[in-house]
């Protein structure tokens, strides 16, 4: 490699490493933004932000999560800015219970 290309090459590599690295500070995860709900979320507190006139958040069991229906014990949140504490080591399942929303992907499983 020519001497004049070493520094630019190192800068590009450093930039690539910085862009590929994700650092998480804290245990609060926001679910729902301009990109919708996303998967792979884990943490002790989940924050759901949404328009409460168009959506809700319902904490359901795994069976209801898989079938996109609310048939068993559940808890419904409707504030549009819901801060939900999760039990350490557990798993929680959330759906939007408005017709068709869960079936279109508005559901998420969270490992605490």
UniProtKB/TrEMBL annotation:
It holds the Pfam family Cu_bind_like. PROSITE patterns: COPPER_BLUE, PHYTOCYANIN. This is Phytocyanin domain-containing protein. The keyword NAD does not apply. One of its GO terms (molecular function) is metal ion binding. The keyword Metal-binding applies. InterPro entries: BlueCu_1_BS (IPR028871), Cupredoxin (IPR008972), Phytocyanin-like (IPR039391), Phytocyanin_dom (IPR003245). It comes from Triticum aestivum. Keywords: Copper, Metal-binding, Signal. Residues 27-112 form the Phytocyanin domain. Residues 1-26 form the signal peptide.
């Amino acid at each position: 490699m020519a001497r004049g290309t070493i520094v630019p090459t190192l800068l590009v590599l450093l930039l690539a490493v910085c862009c590929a690295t994700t650092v998480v500070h804290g245990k609060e995860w926001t679910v729902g933004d301009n990109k919708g709900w996303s998967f792979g979320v884990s943490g002790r507190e989940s924050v759901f932000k949404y328009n409460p006139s168009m959506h809700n958040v319902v904490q359901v069991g795994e069976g209801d999560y898989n079938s996109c229906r609310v048939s068993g014990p559940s808890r419904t949140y409707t504030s549009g800015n819901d801060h939900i504490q999760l039990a350490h080591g557990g798993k929680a399942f959330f759906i939007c219970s408005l017709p068709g929303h869960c079936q279109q992907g508005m559901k998420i499983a969270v490992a605490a």
